[in-house]
Structures are given as structure tokens and as C-alpha cells.
């Protein structure tokens, strides 16, 4: 047994290192050659080394075998050893098919015509090695061993990308509301470009998830996705964290530190709460967005980067610009594509979908079987959700943790939700009594109908505002009136929120 042969053996394992190697080599090898003698001899040699080997006479048969092996429940191929000059479908066409349909398969090319041009073209199409006939056994063994290591890395990378896509891709964004459909369309439209994206919406609406989705759907998906929050870092450390610093730049800078921008090179940088950025940080960030260049704190050399910027804000930046709190030039630079996320209270029909989505996630994590009672879903739909999707997720997680029965009941929900429901019911009762009393008191008065209806309307508005903790958007939705109309009526009746 040669030194090259040893790590490839799948039988007679006598040490830990052999076990580690053998455990990796579960995938099969497909040998493709129009000369059956060559194909069978190579197959016999590799089968003797313990590999599971199949053969095909040309590219068409090989493509069929690869497709069959990729079906659920089948044992897939990990390596492809192919000749180049074959009838019906040659090796180059086969390599193109493999690269497109089976990206985790690693090809090795063997040919009787060893031309440099052919070798270069084969490598471009994904070939890990290029061997000429007659093939030397130990040379093939070494090539197969290297190719299997490459296959393992590709398979692990594909698995990781799948997990990232499931966790952060659009598949993890839940919602059938037309507003969310518009968000999905914008993500798909902007993902392929390098365009800067601004995501706006209240806290808890899922801005970071949308940022992940933009990255996962883009050509940069295999690159880094780095997050940076302007609101969670002390002002004195903002520039150092974002741009990095060199040793000695300030007291305590004992070593060079790369910032978030450099860490995101080749990928995407998600900057949250950009509305909290200091004026100095806004100015520096404007230059980075325009020139893709910056100097770390304390450095004199300019660093150039290839970074896609996705920014988020929970406050309207145009209002901050009017107030002089945000740079106008930076606002127009980052507001290229604006993805506006709706509040959860504006997409009530999505609440059952989101609740079931979170229920499935946390039941899976905690290995429990739970389902919602009908009155729970109804209660969730009638709550105002000031904390948006994040608050709903927390409520569902809490219910899964605390419930002791298969069915989650209203009693498993947080008190804030239950109390809000009770307050709303009480307010509706008070409003009904108020309307009845006012109508009785004013029934005999000789006045126009419009004036007679003002007092009951005022009381209804006041009761609804109090029931919704003066959340005007939720109140307008509950009363089925336009929010602008509600604001005008509040002003007309001089309804002031209690301090």
C-alpha cells in the first residue's frame, strides 16, 4: 500500500485519521468515457480502493444518471471523472451541465489530447484537475483525494447558504397583505444591483430581516453581512467602530482595529438607526457612499472597499432634514430605493400567519406540540401591537414556554394584551351608554341634526382614543375612518391626550 493510497481506503480502518477520512467519502464517483475498457478499468481500480463507482458511455447517459442520483432518497454523486471527446454530448457540454445543475459535484477531466487550451477551458468550467491518458493510478488517486476534499467544502458551503437563505431570505418574511407583497417586489428588483437601499418603518417591523433578505437575494450572498447600529453605540466610539482605527489613534487604542466597513468588504453593510448618526459621522459616511473610500481613525492612508450599503431608520428622515438634524445631501444619497415597512396594526390579516409561523419555530426549538385556540387568534387580531412584529413574536414565544397544555389559551398571553382587550370592551360599553344618554338629553332640543350629533361623536372619539392608549392610527382603523379625518376631528373637538 502506497502513502497516497492509504488515506483513500474505506475498509480495514485501524486509526482515527482513517476513520475521519472514510466518514467523509460517502458520495459516489461517476466515470464517463466512450471507451468501455478505459471506463471499466478506472472503475475497477477505484472500487478496489473502497469507492462506490458508476460508469456512463457519454454525456447524455451521464446527465441522466446525475439527475436520478440527485432525487430525494437517492445517493448523490460527489465526483465526476469524464473524458472530453465523446459522441452525442462531449465533456465540455457535460461540465456546463454539472456546473449549472449540480454545483457541489467536483469534475476531473481525462483526455488523450492534452492541449493547454482544453485544460484552461476545463478549469474555467469547474474542473478540479486535468489528466492525460494513459492515466497513472497513483496520480488519479491523488487527484480524487483532493477533489473529494473540495466536494466536502462545496457541500458544506451549499448547506450553509441554504440555512442562511432559510433564516434570512425572503422565505422568512411572512405576509400576504398587499403592502408586504410590494416589499417582496422591491427586494427582488433591487437585490441584483449595488444600489443603496433605505428601509423605513417603526421599531419591530422587521427592518433588519429585510436587510438580510436583500443581501441573501443578491450576488453578494456568499460575502459577509455586517450589521452596525448607530443607536446602540456610545457617540465617542461610533467612528472607531464603523471606520476602524490604527494603533495610538487615541487613548486605549493599543492595536489596529478594522471597522465594520472593512469587515463588510465584498458583501453588505446594514446600518440601523441611521437617524441617530452624529453630524461628524454623517459627513464621513457621505464620502464613503460616494467614493467607496475612507481613512480609519488616526490613519493617513486611504482604504478602498467594495461594499453594498443598506440603511434603516425608525424616524422620517425628511422631517429630520427640515429640523436641521440630518444632512440633506446624505439623505438624498441614501434615499435611492426606499422600502417602507408597514406597521403590524395596518396588516391585521397577516397576524394569524405570523403567529402560526412563530408558533412552528418555537415549538420546533423547544420540541413541543402546541396549537392556538380560536379565541387566541381573535384576541391577537384585536390588539394594537405598538411593538409590531417583534412584540408578536415575543408573545408567541412566551405562550409556548408557559403553556402546559397542547392548546394555547388566552390566559397564556401577556397581561398587556389581555388588559388592552378588556379596556377596549369597557370603552365600547361606556361609549354606547354615552351615546344613549346624550341622545335622550338632546332629543327635545330644537337644533340642526349636525349639531345634535356632535356631542355623541365627541364622546365616541374620546372613548376610542382612550381604549387605544391614544394611538391615533389604531383608533382610526378601529373607527373605520381616514387618519387625516380623525386628526381634524380631534382638533375640532379640542381633544387633548392626558399628560
Could you characterize the architecture of this molecule?
This protein starts with 15 loop residues before the first helix and ends in a 7-residue tail after the last helix. It has four domains: 6-165, Rossmann fold, CATH 3.40.50.2300; 176-342, P-loop containing nucleotide triphosphate hydrolases (Rossmann fold, 3-Layer(aba) Sandwich); 345-413, Orthogonal Bundle (Helicase, Ruva Protein, domain 3), CATH 1.10.8; 423-492, no CATH class. It is α/β, with parallel strands linked by helices. Helix content is 50%, strand content 12%. The protein is elongated and about 105 Å long. A five-stranded parallel sheet has the order 2-1-3-4-5, sandwiched between helices. A five-stranded parallel sheet has the order 7-10-13-6-14. The protein has a two-stranded antiparallel ribbon with strand order 8-9. The model is unreliable at 1-25, 164-168 and 441-445 (pLDDT under 50). The chain contains 21 helices and 16 strands. Helix 11 packs across helix 13, helix 14 (351-366) crosses helix 16 and helix 17 packs antiparallel against helix 19 (454-467).
Amino acid at each position: 500500500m502506497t502513502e497516497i493510497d492509504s488515506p483513500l481506503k474505506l475498509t480495514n480502518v485501524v486509526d482515527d485519521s482513517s476513520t475521519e477520512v472514510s466518514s467523509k467519502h460517502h458520495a459516489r464517483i461517476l466515470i464517463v468515457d466512450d471507451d468501455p475498457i478505459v471506463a471499466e478499468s478506472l472503475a475497477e481500480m477505484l472500487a478496489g480502493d473502497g469507492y462506490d463507482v458508476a460508469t456512463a458511455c457519454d454525456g447524455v447517459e451521464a446527465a441522466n444518471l446525475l439527475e436520478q442520483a440527485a432525487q430525494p432518497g437517492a445517493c448523490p454523486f460527489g465526483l465526476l471523472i469524464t473524458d472530453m471527446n465523446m459522441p452525442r454530448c462531449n465533456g465540455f457540454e457535460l461540465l456546463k451541465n454539472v456546473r449549472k445543475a449540480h454545483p457541489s459535484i467536483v469534475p476531473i477531466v481525462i483526455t488523450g489530447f492534452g492541449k493547454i487550451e482544453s485544460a484552461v477551458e476545463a478549469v474555467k468550467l469547474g474542473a478540479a484537475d486535468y489528466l492525460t491518458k494513459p492515466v497513472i493510478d497513483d496520480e488519479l488517486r491523488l487527484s480524487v483525494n483532493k477533489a473529494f476534499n473540495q466536494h466536502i467544502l462545496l457541500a458544506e458551503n451549499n448547506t450553509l447558504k441554504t440555512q442562511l437563505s432559510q433564516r434570512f431570505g425572503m422565505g422568512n418574511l411572512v405576509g400576504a397583505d398587499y403592502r408586504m407583497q410590494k416589499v417582496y417586489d422591491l427586494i427582488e428588483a433591487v437585490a441584483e444591483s449595488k444600489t443603496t437601499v433605505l428601509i423605513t418603518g417603526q421599531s419591530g417591523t422587521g427592518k433588519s430581516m429585510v436587510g438580510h433578505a436583500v443581501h441573501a437575494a443578491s450576488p453578494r450572498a456568499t460575502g459577509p453581512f455586517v450589521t452596525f447600529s448607530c443607536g446602540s453605540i456610545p457617540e465617542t466610539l461610533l467612528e472607531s467602530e464603523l471606520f476602524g482605527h490604527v494603533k495610538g489613534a487615541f487613548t486605549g487604542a493599543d492595536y489596529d482595529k478594522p471597522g465594520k466597513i472593512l469587515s463588510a468588504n465584498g458583501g453588505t453593510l446594514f446600518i440601523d438607526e441611521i437617524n441617530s448618526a452624529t453630524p461628524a459621522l454623517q459627513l464621513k459616511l457621505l464620502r464613503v457612499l460616494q467614493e467607496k473610500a475612507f481613512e480609519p481613525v488616526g490613519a493617513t492612508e486611504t482604504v478602498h472597499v467594495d461594499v453594498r450599503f443598506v440603511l434603516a431608520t425608525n424616524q422620517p428622515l425628511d422631517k429630520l432634514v427640515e429640523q436641521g438634524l440630518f444632512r440633506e445631501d446624505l439623505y438624498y444619497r441614501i434615499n435611492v430605493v426606499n422600502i417602507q415597512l408597514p406597521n403590524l396594526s395596518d396588516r391585521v390579516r397577516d397576524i394569524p400567519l405570523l403567529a402560526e409561523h412563530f408558533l412552528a419555530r418555537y415549538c420546533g426549538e423547544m420540541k413541543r406540540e402546541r396549537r392556538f385556540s380560536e379565541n387566541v387568534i381573535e384576541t391577537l387580531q384585536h390588539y394594537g401591537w405598538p411593538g409590531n412584529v417583534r412584540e408578536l413574536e415575543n408573545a408567541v414565544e412566551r405562550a409556548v414556554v408557559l403553556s402546559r397544555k397542547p392548546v394555547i389559551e388566552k390566559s397564556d398571553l401577556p397581561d398587556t394584551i389581555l388588559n388592552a382587550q378588556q379596556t377596549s370592551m369597557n370603552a365600547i360599553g361606556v361609549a354606547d351608554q354615552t351615546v344613549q344618554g346624550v341622545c335622550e338629553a338632546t332629543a327635545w332640543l330644537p337644533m340642526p341634526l349636525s349639531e345634535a350629533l356632535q356631542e355623541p361623536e365627541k364622546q365616541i372619539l374620546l372613548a376610542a382614543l382612550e381604549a387605544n392608549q391614544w394611538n391615533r392610527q389604531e383608533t382610526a382603523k378601529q373607527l373605520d375612518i381616514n387618519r387625516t379625518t380623525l386628526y381634524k376631528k380631534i382638533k375640532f373637538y379640542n381633544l387633548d391626550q392626558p399628560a
